[in-house]
Amino acid sequence: MSTADVTKLLGVSRRTLMRWVQQLDMQLEKNELGHYQFSNEDVERLKQIQSQSQPPQTQSQPVSQAVQTVQGSRKGTLKNVEVVENPLEESLIKRMEELERALRSKADDVVSYQMLQHRREIEELTKKIALLEQKIEDLENAQSKREPKDHSLVFDQSTTQKKPRRKNLISSIFSF
Questions:
Q1: Helix 40-52 vs helix 3-10: angle between axes, to the nearest 10 degrees?
Q2: Per the UniProt record, which residue ranges are transmembrane (predicted)?
Q3: Are 67 and 52 in contact (CB under 8 A)?
Q4: What pTM value is reported for the model?
């Protein structure tokens, strides 16, 4: 199709059409006179762009890029473009988004389970620590009961009693 045919079909000016072609970086064939020739695929793509560039409608799915006219610029200027060339792609994108949501949900469940498991382990360790503290306290009390009340040192106590010295045999016979 020629440029004039496409502009009539889409209801846009030739300049708008050429601007779209330039902004989308479309690779079009040219005839022997150097005029653009649009294939049916190109026309379908331009129709999709034109339908997306209409005033925004509520869409059920999030779109990463949308066709919008730039405020303060000429009508029909494209800002960002997303061309849906295949309905299969749309269903694949939806399915991928569902899988990502399910994956995030599963990851959240795993993290929650791990947190509960850690909490149980911490509670068990806290009980063991309390039990050990009680045992230490009992041991300290038992130790304090065994200690002598007299805190004198072993070396401070008197030495063992000396044995009376035997008088030598001669002095015992001749006692003076």
A1: 40
A2: none
A3: yes
A4: 0.33
Is residue 161 in some structural domain?
no
If one compares 56 and 33, the residue with the highest pLDDT of the two is: 33
pLDDT digits (tens, 9 = 90+) for 136-160: 999 999 888 876 555 555 555 555 6
Does any domain span residue 166? no
Can you tell me the distance from the alpha carbon of 49 to that of 81, in angstroms, rounded to the nearest whole number? Answer: 7
Identify the CATH number of the domain in which residue 45 sits.
1.10.1660.10
Euclidean distance between CA atoms 44 and 39, whole angstroms: 9
Reduced 3-state DSSP string for the chain: CEHHHHHHHHCCCHHHHHHHHHHHCCCCEECCCCCEECCHHHHHHHHHHHHHCCCCCCCCCCCCCCCCECCCCCCCCECCCCCCCCHHHHHHHHHHHHHHHHHHHHHHHHHHHHHHHHHHHHHHHHHHHHHHHHHHHHHHHHHHHHCCCCCCCHHHCCCCCCCCCCCCHHHHHCCC
Altogether, the residues listed in the chain come to a count of: 176
How far is residue 144's CA from residue 148's CA, in Å, rounded to a whole number? 9
